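Q: Hi! Curious about what 3-oxoacyl-reductase looks like structurally. Here's the sequence.
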Amino acid sequence: MSYDKRITAIGHQLNFPKGLLSGQVAIITGSGQGIGAEAARLFANEGAKVVISDIDAKKADEVTKSINEAGSAAISVPGDVLDPKYPEELVKKAAEFGNGKIHIIVNNAGYTWDAVIHKMSDKQWSNIIDLHTTGPFRIIRAAAPYFRVKDGESRSIVNISSTSGTHGNAGQANYSVAKAGVTGLTKTIAKEWGPQFGVRCNCIAFGHILTRLTGAKEAGASVTLPDGSKVALGIPEAQQRAAGAAQHLDIPLRRPGTATEAAGSILALCSPYFSYVTGQTIEVTGGRNI
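A: Let's find out. The predicted structure is below.
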């Protein structure tokens, strides 16, 4: 399809009677809960067939069930993005679900494992680097045959980053380096797959969003690693109390964002309204760091 015809086709779709993502197949990692689950529901509401990917099979199945019961289409493909074999399995099942096509990848899976630099172990470092950079890379590489195509259909990748990657953050050297790496990966994909195939690849750097990563550590949220050890998630209540009312004073909107608001920014980037946006890192922060 020529450039002019493609733009005309996009223009004709601007009424979106069947949804912004009608007919598209979307893989969303980490979609068993939090931002990923909200994104999955939003995508499904906009007509996408959604592939729910999460290390927690029970939660992935629950989100899948809720989407299907609402009249939309989803499948659950649980697994660990740190497992080198999982990306191939995920992409294979997504392509089968999409009758040979995949249109969207949202690399959202992740967590934090914090420590100040002089106390950070090699295990903490490598785990977070692999989780946030190697995992997404493997998924994108596995999906290459479904993105490097010339069928005139939209293809979009959204990699989830953080303001820790764009500005750094004390106690998060591993996470900051990993999320900065996501930006480099994003720009490279945009430059490699944009010219011939029209693939768009963008990055969202979230600020303070209300998820289990920013909730109270005392709530007990955790991630179990392949070796059986657990990583506690969240921020200690004492640290949150110490910040008090001042903790949101550097956010112009004076509040953290919700998971639904975060998911909405992902949907926006994948929608036809952002068809000329690629290679960008967009900060979704309520105005923090402006």
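A: A fun detail: The domain at 3-211+255-284 is CATH 3.40.50.720 (Rossmann fold).
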